[in-house]
Queue: 3 jobs
Job 1
Amino acid sequence: EISKNRRAKLVIGIPTVKRAEENYLFKTLNSLVKSCSKQELKDVLIVVFIAEVEKIFFEWVYFHHCTQKN
């Protein structure tokens, strides 16, 4: 979820780039989220830096994963 004016006790930054074989971003995010309690998730802000020049990769990450509600 993209949040404005949100205060967090902990900010976690995750950089990612397109990889030829496998993308580890979502495994990493799932691991982080599953290991936190609901209260911990309220206090954490996860920022993903997509360090990629190919627009299609950014769009794939955003539209297929960031806009989905769980």
Job 2
Amino acid sequence: VRGAAGLVKSTLNIGIASEVAQRGRMSICSECEHKVDDKCNVCGCWLSHKTRLTTESCPAGKWGAEKTANA
């Protein structure tokens, strides 16, 4: 998550990805070699927050930002 702003957005439910995207991302992360507990060892983000936000993507290229109608 890109700093404190991303954590705040996730906590306040701003820019939240679809449930399908969130589940898919977390499924990919759960099997990733870079995951330790709830953190990504590549970017240092908390996955429970990072996977919720539409604008976030995997730093290892395993999943991308969610496409929106405005994008």
Job 3
Amino acid sequence: LLFRYGQVVSLHDASEAGVAILEEARDFFLASDACEQAAMAEVALVDAHWFSGAPEKARGHLQRAAELID
């Protein structure tokens, strides 16, 4: 639920609030050894950073998502 909430906030709020929520969800997934879900959170972070004009941050999250599913 936290992950989905983070997605919605990141799409509708120009602040970094959505990013913080998505990072919290990702960290929870990682702590729970849920790598696929953590990768999904990383991809959501890609979108959040890309659309906010931070492509370098987006690329970093994309790389981490790929590492999580390898």
